[in-house]
Amino acid sequence: MRIAGVSRFLAAGALAVSVGAAASTSLPVARAAVPGTVVPVTGPGFDTCAAPSDAQMNDWWTNSPYYSIGIYIGGSNRACTQSSLTTNWADYNMSGTNYRGSAWGVFNFWVGPQAPCTTVNTSSRFSLNISTATSQGESEARSAVNAAVNLGFPRYDTPIYYDLEPFDTSNSSCVAAVKAFINGWDYELDHPLINWSGVYGSSCASDMIAFPYISNVPDLVDLADYGPFYGSNKTAYNIRCVGNTYWSNNMRIHQWAGNVSKTYGSTNLMIDQDCTDVRMNRIASLSVSCSVP
User: Fold this and answer.
1) pLDDT for res 281
2) Spatial CA neighbour of 276 closest among 208, 210, 211, 198
3) Residues 60-75: what's their mean pLDDT?
4) For every residue of the chain, which 3-state class applies, written as one string?
5) How far is Cα 264 from Cα 64, in angstroms, rounded to an integer?
6) Share above pLDDT 90 across residues of the chain, in percent, rounded to a whole number
7) Residue among 89, 146, 140, 138 nearest 111 (CA)
8) What does the buried/exposed string (b/e) look like for 79-96 if buried means 16 or more CB atoms within 10 Å of the residue's CB?
9) How much is the average pLDDT of 163-184?
10) 111 exposure class (CB count in 10 Å sphere: 0-12, 13-18, 19+)
């Protein structure tokens, strides 16, 4: 949601590229699916800076149109305190025993060091050196998996997204460092740690179209693009700077609106609104429309 008080999404239109840019090129294969609890979920989701309490989650499960939630499990730049994010949060909210029918789908964010040329306030940045940036990406992946496990997520087969804020995409040295860092993150999550590697960022201003062409391609992406008409595209596709052929098989989330106040039941939350067409930790697959108010 926020890094050092700055909105997580900044000007997705900073790079003026059409929706169909590079759409003729298919996404390279990231890796084979790992069997387990990760299933396709298409439908409305949300993310929020501080994880809601169990009681709030119950309230929204009963009264809201959402089926999935993004939470911030850690990292040096995570802004919000997480008083509700205890060691049994995942077990309670994903078990399916506390709700009617099924349980929440969850996608996890890790908010670690940002690009050397980031355009947001940040307490830490990774190195401009390619080798060092790669190692730092691997280290962040290990820390993220440990944090997820401590919260009750499975040791293996858990999707975790690196929160990559906007940076100067015209700086070629910085772009190379970003690609190296994300390559290390993806490699470590996919191979030694056997999880799903994800990256969150502004579809344009975080240069998300660079990542199909690194050695270890992110399995999943969360693309922030509010569009020229705020909140008009409530689907997972037709997103600026990243063509529809990229991450097209249950591999993407579209964050289509941010910092929206919503009340369902007796619970008010400040959220970002998402449309998911992605694999996530959930006990059953789901496919419903993302068109919510």
Assistant:
1) 87
2) 198
3) 94
4) CEECCEECCCCHHHCCCCCCCCCCCCCCCCCCCCCCCEEEEEEEEEECCCCCCHHHHHHHHHHCCCCEEEEEEECCCCCCCCCCCCCCHHHHHHCCCCCCCCCCEEEEEECCCECCCECCCCCCECCCCHHHHHHHHHHHHHHHHHHHHHCCCCCCCCEEEEECCCECCCCHHHHHHHHHHHHHHHHHHHCCCCCEEEEEEECCCCCHHHHHHCCCCCCEEEEECCCCCCCCCCCCCCECCECCCCCCCCEEEEEEEEEEEEEECCEEEEEEEEEEEEEEECCCCEECCCCCC
5) 6
6) 67
7) 140
8) beebeebbeebbebbbee
9) 98
10) buried
- Phi, psi torsion values for 42, nearest 5 degrees: -115, 120
Q: Which long-range contacts (CB under 8 A, 24 or more apart) does 260-267 make?
A: 262/46, 262/64, 264/59, 264/60, 264/63, 264/64, 265/59, 265/60, 265/62, 265/63, 265/64, 266/59, 267/52, 267/56, 267/59, 267/60
The verdict on pTM exceeding 0.85 is yes
Structure token pair of residue 264: 């369902």
Report the largest interatomic distance among the alpha carbons of the chain, rounded to a whole angstrom: 51
Strand-pair category, 286-287 with 38-47: parallel
Q: Give the CA-trace dihedral at 284, 289, 290, 293, to 10 degrees.
A: -120
| DSSP β-ladder status, 267-281 and 38-47 | antiparallel
Q: Which residues contact 235 (CB under 8 A, 6 or more apart)?
A: 254, 275, 290
Residue 95: predicted pLDDT: 67
Name the range with the highest mean pLDDT among 27-31, 60-64, 141-145, 284-288: 141-145
